[in-house]
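How it folds
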Amino acid sequence: MEFQFDIVVIGGGHAGCEAAHIAAKMGLKTVLITMDMTKFAQMSCNPAMGGVAKGQIIREIDALGGLSGIITDRSMIQFRMLNRSKGPAMWSPRAQCDRMLFSREVRKELERTENLFLWQEEVKKIIIEEKNVKGVETVFGNKFICKAVILTAGTFLNGLMHVGMKTHMGGRSGDMPSVELSNGLVKEGFKIGRLKTGTSARIDGRTINFKLMVEQKGDGEGRCFSYMHNNIKIEDEKSCYITYTNIEAHEELKKGLDRSPLFKGIIKGRGPRYCPSIEDKIVTFKEKERHQLFIEPEGRDTIEYYINGFASSLPLEVQVNALRKIKGLENVEIYRPGYAIEYDYFPPTQLNHTLETKMVKGLYFAGQVNGTTGYEEAAAQGLIAGINAARKIKGENEFILKRDEAYIGVLIDDLVIKGIDEPYRMFTARAEYRILLRQDNADERLTRKGYEIGSVDNERIKRLEEKEALIEETIDFVKKRSIIPESINEFLAKKETTPINQKTKLINLLLRPQIGIKELLLNSKEARKLKVFDSDRQDEIFESVEIRIKYDGYIKREQLIAEKIKRLEDIILPKGIDYDALKSISTEGREKLKRIKPYTIGQASRISGVSPSDINVLLMYLGR
């Protein structure tokens, strides 16, 4: 049969679900085609969302009207705010999720989304005519004619799994690979490469001695990811547990190195440097006597646990023998072995910042096919690809986030301009403007942008305006009101900070590191009349106010730097510029500029191999 849609999304992982949902939400008739409709947004690796920098991305997805934050809140069994001992630029929310519930809740949301249709089948071919996408064809000969295709196939493109010296074709454990899509795109002229990732064994919780491990509980504060939710108190919160490898376990692992596909050269793709397999760790860091492991629950209604830090592709018996040398796992039984998987990806310098391919109009790539790793990075790309595909079909301007506006902007700019030579993972260190891109203010940065493009509804805007009004009222009160010594000195003494001897502005006391805003205001009778104390979002408001006041100098300085850098970002490079005619540019610089085709001087300056002197030549060429 032949079907007509505006947009076809290939793949039902985190990228595909976000892309399909947002495109349909923006009014485009969209179909999401996946091999297995029981595994939408499957957590193929650890059952958690967020973490350092990743938590900020989830908040940004939510601020733009995406799914990930809402679904995380519905399925979380533990919440923690990481890096609280550091400055607020480093604070990162992380939630342990019920893996099966997460997938079910995604499906519920997709099925209730207007304009969105679901189809279970394998896509074998993207139909391209004269460098324009026309649709897709499935293995049973069905054709879906459309104006845009978003490819989000994850690790399924020619996926090859490894356990010891045994290999098996598959997109992940229990799933078949996609074997024809890559070849068809290569014939269209796309460059392709191979990457590798891996996961750990899943273990039977009945065979774990948790008493020998360190329990890691959640914060218990009632936090959440989505700006549409108030504080969520998790019922029956689940703990994670910490244990460590040891010399005995390392010796068992070493026995299998001669049958390791990684060290025998069977695995050709490069793996993620920041998430190496356990066998890679014991070889690379041979001086270390132990490595930390996190034992993470897979859900409320299962006894299955994930071992974070023990990814492996060693033979099954080696994995089991090594695990049984670890404290608390002496009698462990496993459900399935850890494995490595190799898969095809497309170097992302072949993309525009909209995630549309440069070579074929109407074709977008998102997720691990672009060389990233992680649910959050994939979901962010799916969201941006879906937004831009929808806007292009409607004849609207492209939607691009800049590096000072969002971690999502940093992620996509890094991929498109710098490219990758290993699976890309987001870190706070990758962002130049961390104090601007905090987890607490993603809605203030992005929600109005989402409203302007049609991805955000009136209810979300209303909540943002309410939040901003409460923040401004509270800041204004703290700046203008004073407090007398008799009202506050007892409190200051408890906080082990110097008492005051005269009437003092509240803001001056709040600037002291020992003082928090909520407890300070509770010592003022007038402050208790503030509207924030009647709000069920008061913790969220107080956090934002305290960050704004205590880090005001840092925030303003970073804003100033960002404004200066924007001058380069706004200098447009003309299309069709003849870089070969600019002989003063280095040979490497010319080759990189011709291949990547940056839009602005700022983008050109971030390309590896383009030197400052090359940028000066471009500025002179432009008459600057």
